[in-house]
What does this fold into?
Amino acid sequence: MERTVDGRPESEAERLERLAGTGRYLRLLLLAGLVGIPVSVAAFAFLALLHWMTAFVWEDLPADLGHDLPPWWWPVPWLLVGGFAVGAAVKWLPGGGGHVPIEGLSAAPVRPSHLPGVLLAALGGLPLGVVLGPEAPLMAVGGAVALLVVRRWGPEAGTPESAVLGTSGAAAAVAVIFGSPLVAAVFIMEAVGFAGPKLTRVILPCLLSAGVGALVFTGLGDWTGLPVSSLALPGLGAASLHAADLLWTVPAAAAIAVGVKWIHSLGRRLAPAAQRRPMTLALAAAAVTAVCAGAYALLTGRSPVEVLLSGQDSLGELSRDPASLTAWALIAMIACKGIAYAVSLASLRGGPIFPGLFLGAAAGVLFSALPGYGAVPALAAGMAAATAAVLPLPVSAAVLVTLLLGADAAEMAPVVLIAVVVAFVTERFLDRPRARAAAAAP
It folds into this structure.
């Protein structure tokens, strides 16, 4: 019999709060901790395979054929294959290949029956040049594996306990790629939308699962020696903060938020057509991405890979040597990768955060040419502004970028927080017409 509260059906949050007063909650915590082990193994295998496929297509094979860099035309065949794989997953497999990236990043658990489609879309698209990150399929893998593991002896499917375990699996998986269980916990905290004690009941299992998963993942990396890395910024030098850095951060963050909004607007215009004709739009998005990468290579003489993929590896290279790219190369990269990112958000499958983070960093390096604007503060502001505009979850954005900055985190914290607030407010202001239209819709 369904419980009621003040004459209305009991909500999921209220059911979870009632559960916290029983011994079943302790069992839920234990299951969440145990779930972190298989989830981290699955996440490690997924990322290792993704890394191997990416290196084979964009490094090993061109080198074997005598190319120092992939030629400008190299992305065309690979992206068309990737577009077909994503389109097939979206059109013919359960779950539509996973969460649509233009809608952001979801912490909701994924049904195990949707896992084949998620894997086909991710492994068929991401290593072949799709301009999206691994975080969304990784979370889907974590949530689905968690539900598979506890299916026999865990809570009944569709219950709040089952949902919490699925979310815990997603948290354990995303802790791997972001390099910290703390980022996973903060993201879940903002995404679930609960507050007070209700939030605590959800976040405790996620923290436990993410902590265990991160520990096992680190051990697997040391044991196997496989090159599976988390998001990191090597090469940042010691930096100091000046008044000019804070002043330039405000207009720079607002400009970056406007740019991200333009990219999202383009993606949202394409999304309805992608829903109606997934295969056609997936192939079209792949073709546009290949054209953008080829055009960038021809215009700059640099590798087309700088426009492709999630940007995780390119972000490390950019932070290590920001001066390696001229202003013209940065402008061309931002324009070409921005267009490829927009069509990928609408028509393909993957996570929206990593390419946005890279584009923000590139824009920050470009803004560092302004008088008195330091390279590290500009880079930090660019990443923070783009992440806050992409998600938009301001606390998660601030924590993620702060942790990325490593030894410079304390010094750069004011820039990060100002950039996050300015970008979030700008994005909310620009999004008002769409929000009003959504509220007025029947």
Notes: The first helix runs from residue 12 to 19. The beta strands are 4-5, 8-9.
